């Protein structure tokens, strides 16, 4: 596997004063590509975020306690500030994940970033999301995007 080179320090705004909590920003990253998951995880950890990575939309729903197969208990206190998901994944797409998240009362206000190289805007523009074209995805772009969510939250 190729080593991903990241800048030494990229600052994500301190959101503790905004949210009244010293906890770091918690990002749930969903991608079926191991390389992409590792890249996003390292980038966000370098930027002082707490990162949880999962390899599928189904696992993301399980983590959030939104899977229908198992009744979830104890997820009321789960705090996720941002969800980043790949669009094209086997089983369940990022779009389908987005719909399930936005149908949930617990997570409907959590911003969702869908990463895609496809033009999928007409299909998902009603669900309050952001699309990033992976071809243009730069590390500083992700940091800037997370900072936007900190400022508007």
TrEMBL record:
GO terms for biological process: cytokinin-activated signaling pathway; phosphorelay signal transduction system. The keyword Transmembrane applies. It holds the Pfam family Response_reg. PROSITE patterns: RESPONSE_REGULATORY (PS50110). The chain crosses the membrane at residues 129-152. It is found in: Nucleus. GO terms for cellular component: nucleus. Its main location: nucleus. Residues 26-150 form the Response regulatory domain. Keywords: Membrane, Nucleus, Phosphoprotein, Transcription, Transcription regulation, Transmembrane, Transmembrane helix, Two-component regulatory system. The modification 4-aspartylphosphate is found at residue 86. This is Signal transduction response regulator receiver domain. It comes from Arabidopsis suecica.
């Amino acid at each position: 596997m190729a080593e991903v080179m990241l800048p030494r320090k990229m600052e994500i705004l301190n959101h503790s004063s905004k949210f009244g909590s010293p906890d770091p920003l918690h990002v749930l990253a969903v991608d079926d590509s191991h390389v992409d998951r590792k890249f996003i995880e390292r980038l966000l950890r370098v930027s002082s975020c707490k990162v949880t990575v999962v390899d599928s939309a189904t696992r993301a729903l399980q983590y959030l306690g939104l899977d229908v197969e198992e009744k979830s208990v104890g997820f009321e206190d789960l705090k996720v500030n941002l969800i980043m998901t790949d669009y094209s994944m086997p089983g369940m797409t990022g779009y389908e994940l987005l719909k399930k998240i936005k149908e949930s009362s617990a997570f409907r206000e959590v911003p969702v970033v869908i990463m895609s190289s496809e033009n999928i805007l007409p299909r998902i523009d009603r669900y309050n999301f952001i699309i990033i074209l992976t071809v243009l995805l730069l590390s500083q772009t992700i940091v800037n995007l997370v900072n936007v969510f900190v400022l508007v939250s």
